[in-house]
């Protein structure tokens, strides 16, 4: 009787393994069918260009605000070469 129960238990164990394996395979095929294809609204190269432009614009805006609002200059003077040469001379000035 014990030997018979062991055989039945082994068969049911193998059946459960087989059922689980079939279920995993079925789920795998369903997930392959359901896989979404992502369509990007903006390509990566365009994103890089946009970020670069935003960095340049924010730097220019920060210089304008810093020079005209916090400093004593006008907004147009920020883009003069003489202004930046004066700033570089102040930084490199030997003490």
TrEMBL record:
One of its GO terms (cellular component) is DNA-directed RNA polymerase complex. Keywords: DNA-directed RNA polymerase, Membrane, Transcription, Transmembrane, Transmembrane helix. The chain crosses the membrane at residues 44-70. The keyword Cell inner membrane does not apply. The keyword Cell membrane does not apply. Residues 10-32 have a biased composition (Basic and acidic residues). It comes from the Bacteria. This is DNA-directed RNA polymerase subunit beta. It comes from Robertmurraya mangrovi.
